[in-house]
TrEMBL record:
This is Flagellar protein FliL. InterPro entries: FliL. It is found in: Cell inner membrane; Cell membrane. Belongs to the FliL family. The chain crosses the membrane at residues 12-39. One of its GO terms (cellular component) is plasma membrane. It holds the Pfam family FliL. Keywords: Cell inner membrane, Cell membrane, Cell projection, Chemotaxis, Cilium, Flagellar rotation, Flagellum, Membrane, Transmembrane, Transmembrane helix.
Length: 163
């Protein structure tokens, strides 16, 4: 009988496979880091960022605020009140007013109180759905226009939550 030498190719060892995966992972991670640094440079120092933003336009954390009196926008205090019906439903509303020219803080406070009084007369059925919300926005805009004699050009709804 003849003896046949069968030479089957050996599969790579487990150690070599793990080493290849580790090297490829490091290369992929390094490439991702490099692309990230090239596309989005690291953020500026907080000290540099604070120096670039005027002090009057910064919030508590030193970040710039959109609504400032310097750019004619006054953000009103959040309004939380119950609805007329059902009385157990509450509404929370945050509104900002855009003034034509220099903002009037006293007028903004009057408008705030007027919006609170109006919301107490609204029922849940009146403000349900997109059409009801649009009616609410239109009603508030109309009340603000009447109260401000045209000095407020825009009412911006920041949040609106019914609970």
């Amino acid at each position: 009988m003849e003896e046949i030498d069968s030479k089957q190719p050996k599969s790579p060892s487990l150690v070599m496979t793990i080493a290849a995966v580790a090297v490829l992972t490091l290369v992929a991670g390094g490439g991702g880091w490099l692309v990230g640094v090239l596309l989005a440079p690291p953020p500026a120092d907080k000290a540099e960022a604070a120096a670039e933003v005027p002090e009057s336009a910064t919030g508590e954390e030193g970040l710039p605020k959109i609504a400032t009196e310097a750019n004619g926008i006054v953000q009103l205090e959040p309004i939380t009140t119950n609805l007329a019906y059902p009385a157990e439903n509450w509404v929370r509303l945050e509104v900002a007013l855009q003034f034509k020219g220099v903002p009037d803080v006293a007028l903004a406070e009057e408008i705030h109180q007027d919006i609170v009084a109006y919301l107490k007369t609204v029922s849940l059925q009146q403000i349900q759905g997109p059409r009801g919300f649009q009616y609410l926005r239109d009603d508030i805009q109309e009340r603000v226009d009447l109260r401000s004699d045209g000095r407020v050009t825009n009412v911006m709804f920041r949040t609106f939550v019914i609970q």
